[in-house]
Amino acid sequence: MPIPTKMRAMLLTGHGGLDKLVYREDVPVPVPAPKPGEVLIEIAACGVNNTDLNTRTAWYAPQVRSGLTPEVGIKGIDSNDGGQAAWNRNPLKFPRIQGADGVGRIVAVGESVPTSRIGERVITDPCMRDPNRPPRARGTFYIGSEVDGGYAEYAAIVTDNAVKVECGLSDTELATFACSYSTAEEMLARTRLERGETVLVTGASGGVGTATLQLAKRRGARVIAVAGREKERRLRELGADLFVPRERADLAAAVTELVGEQKVDVVIDVVGGPTFTDMLRVLRRAGRYASAGAIAGPYGEIDLRDLVYKDLEMHGVANPEAETIRRLVGYIERGEVKPLVDRTYPLSQLREAHAEFVQKRHIGKIVITVRP
């Protein structure tokens, strides 16, 4: 099929509310660049992630202190961000096509990319890296933020970020993996979670949370899931061994009731906010903590006595390393993890998808279907 010159896409026209998302059917189809070698992907589906809403609303701006509440997610944040409202605190260029979790097939390649890649089914590795930087500092661009992403019929990305996958899952199911599961896998790798250890997972019903739950069970760990009370049954079916309702104000006491003085080996956190102190308190000596988000708020108190006198490790994870998503693809192809699609929306209803996303009623992922 010939590649058209125009495509359907959802454009982010600036920081703010849902009105900043503008649906168009006359956006030029990108041409894959020869340097760096790019491929053109015909997008079939794209997962929705917190980073999409964080970027749109200006939540990343350093002066923002609230969590990603439904009001913030719908109306945006009225802040003078000083050009620091992207994840890396650099100005964002508009219009931008968001969407880090694109899935589709390669239909064209730039001059420096082998034509044998045409026809490959791929998922997008969201993090674009500079190999000349030190490890863990290589992530410089994020698909859907500094470069256009998957909320469009076509996307041109660097060939290394188009990762081939061969499996029987649908496009919608595949669109649940790249961002959430690579983030979860990176946190578990950095904290070195081992068989028989106990891990506390906050925000356990979301995309990263359900990914962490599955990947932790794959490692043979015992999982304590923290989520809304009404989600306990589903999370236990997914493999959670123990459960703490997020409605409990005393997280440390609730965890102690479950595990006694054994304490927790690892905390995997995407919530932050007022429970941050409790998360460090429940860790054993030499315990490990990793964070990849702060949906309940970016500010929290820390008792340095926990950090210092228990010899704790703390990791911040924004950009998983390149080998992480390759491991993840292996898990997918061998059926060691499963997709969790809560609901889908067509591309033209991305605003509605964002409005539903911030209500936090879903378990797993909300996915945008781009190709009917």
Give a concise summary.
By secondary structure, the chain is α/β, with parallel strands linked by helices. The chain has helices at 50-57, 70-75, 171-174, 178-190, 207-218, 232-238, 251-259, 276-281, 304-309, 322-333, 350-357, and strands at residues 6-12, 21-28, 38-47, 101-109, 121-124, 127-129, 139-142, 154-158, 162-164, 198-201, 222-227, 242-245, 264-269, 283-291, 313-316, 341-346, 365-369.
What is the third-level CATH name, the topology of the largest domain? Quinone Oxidoreductase, Chain A, domain 1
Biggest β-sheet, characterized? 7 strands, mixed
Number of strand elements: 17
CATH architecture of the largest domain: Alpha-Beta Complex
How many helical stretches?
11
List the quaternary state of the chains: single chain
Q: Can you tell me the residue ranges where pLDDT is under 50 for at least 5 consecutive residues?
A: none
Order of helices and strands: EEEHHEEEEEEHHEHEHEHEHEHEHEHE
Overall description:
- The structure is a single chain.
- This protein has 372 residues and is α/β, with parallel strands linked by helices.
- The protein folds into two domains: 6-176 and 339-369, Alpha-Beta Complex (Quinone Oxidoreductase, Chain A, domain 1); 180-316, NAD(P)-binding Rossmann-like Domain (Rossmann fold, 3-Layer(aba) Sandwich).
- The protein contains eleven helices and 17 strands.
- Helix 5 (207-218) links the parallel strand 10 (198-201) and strand 11 (222-227).
- The longest helix has 13 residues, at 178-190.
- The protein is globular, with a radius of gyration of 20 Å.
